[in-house]
Amino acid sequence: MLFNYDISLVLLAIIIACLAFYVSFWLCKAGARKKHNCWPLFSGPTMGCGIWVLHYMVMQAHHHSHIINYNIKITLASLIVAIIGCSLGFGCFLFKRLRKNHYILPALIFSATAASMHYLGMAAILNAGDWYVSNAYIALSLIVIFITSLGMLRLTHLMLVMTSKNDIYANFCRLGATVTLCIGVAIMHFLGTSKMNMAPMGSSPLAMSHDDHIENTLAMTMTILIALVFMLAIFIWFINFKEHLSNELLKRELISKNLQLKQMTQHDSLTQLPNRLYLQNHLNTLFDKQLQPLFIMFIDLDGFKRVNDVWGHAIGDELLVKISKKLRNVVGNGGFVARIGGDEFIIVVCEQTKEAAIQLANRLLSRISDSYELSATTIDFLSASIGISIYPEHGHDVATLLKKADVAMYYIKDKGKNNVIFYDEVTMVLPT
Ligand SMILES: Nc1nc2c(ncn2[C@@H]2O[C@H](COP(=O)(O)OP(=O)(O)OP(=O)(O)O)[C@@H](O)[C@H]2O)c(=O)[nH]1
């Protein structure tokens, strides 16, 4: 049967019809967004045009022994039937109470529309000769179009209830509804025309009374409709592209704002060093990785208050920033530096031995006591006290290890400052 057709023209007809159906389902879904709530009104006409164009293009693709002439009034009436019928079908389907769990009425409207359009279209052929269609074929074509309409409506319903998160699934449903409808209309068409047996041109007296302008009107109407479908498809693609672009921009903005927020909540605003929260997370990560031994060095500057009191807070801030950079430089990439309070810093390093840790602490003390060129003065009297606790020797949790390093730091401050000491549970007393 297919060999009676110009396959390339049939394929073109199917592509155009699928495009129209896809666009009509898209318009239907676009109505779910408040700003596009009148768009579903265009779903019915677009689908109607698709069915109509499919029918007439496939008719043209039929290798008739002669040129088919149409009654232009009936032909255009079939277009109007398709547009009105599909609009009614969509209206009925989108009317929420009717849509709830059953699609019988809208499916009946869609299948009656497709069938009336098809058989009206057949009746519009002037020189059809002695073609006939058996009642069984008509009944079969009606059953097919009704079942495919039900399938199409089910998929459209699924597409409508998908949230924007499930855009890919919604697209699958839209494609599924498109293909289902196209298959239904195509099967109905081939069943309806399978017994067509055209009389040669001129055998019908009516055919003689119509001149070329009928063909031209039909071709023109079809061209306009196809152009409209394409324009609508391009417009929709453009809108989708614009939305995709603005979503992408929003997404990037959100990511950068999140990063900013993370930076703000986990870093000290003056020195940009990690803060106490970051330190806790970092230590827990190191514990999980089973890195040991870890040396937790609690550093408190000696005599820092004097800088604030004599030169003011701004100079104190300037000094804190310089010291932070210095600590980072001495520790390098192998260690972690955090600022947890006014002039208090924590350094976490993983060293092989206590001696290596003491060496690093002494290097830190020597660099902290360098002189500092600040905007209003030069500071050359600064020193620091460092208390060290060891993981896992002194504890297995962040709070205990920080507490013990703090106790060790205060111990050495009491003993004369500018020195470093490990926590020792015999000589040092933990506050209760
Ligand atoms: N400039 C500045 N000062 C701060 C900041 N945060 C806390 N401070 C001050 O830092 C000082 C820290 O106090 P202390 O550690 O008791 O002062 P100190 O002179 O180092 O005393 P010792 O540790 O006993 O040697 C206080 O004067 C706080 O007001 C800050 O962000 N900027």
Automatic annotation (TrEMBL):
Enzyme class: transferase
Entry annotated with the keyword Transmembrane: yes
Spans traversing the lipid bilayer: 6-27, 39-58, 70-95, 107-126, 132-156, 168-191, 218-241
E.C. numbers: 2.7.7.65
Recorded catalytic activity of this chain's protein: 2 GTP = 3',3'-c-di-GMP + 2 diphosphate
Pfam families cross-referenced by the UniProt entry: GGDEF, MHYT
Domain GGDEF positions: 292-425
Gene3D superfamilies: 3.30.70.270
The keyword Iron is assigned to this record: no
GO MF annotation list: diguanylate cyclase activity; lyase activity
Cofactor: Mg(2+)
Pathway: Purine metabolism; 3',5'-cyclic di-GMP biosynthesis
Record-annotated MHYT domain positions: 5-199
GO cellular component terms attached to this protein's record: membrane
Stored InterPro entries: DGC-Regulatory_Protein (IPR052163), GGDEF_dom (IPR000160), MHYT_dom (IPR005330), Nucleotide_cyclase (IPR029787), Rev_trsase/Diguanyl_cyclase (IPR043128)
Keyword annotations from UniProtKB, A to Z: Lyase, Membrane, Transmembrane, Transmembrane helix
NCBIfam families in the cross-refs: GGDEF
Protein name: diguanylate cyclase
Organism: Buttiauxella noackiae ATCC 51607
High-level lineage: Bacteria, Pseudomonadati, Pseudomonadota, Gammaproteobacteria, Enterobacterales
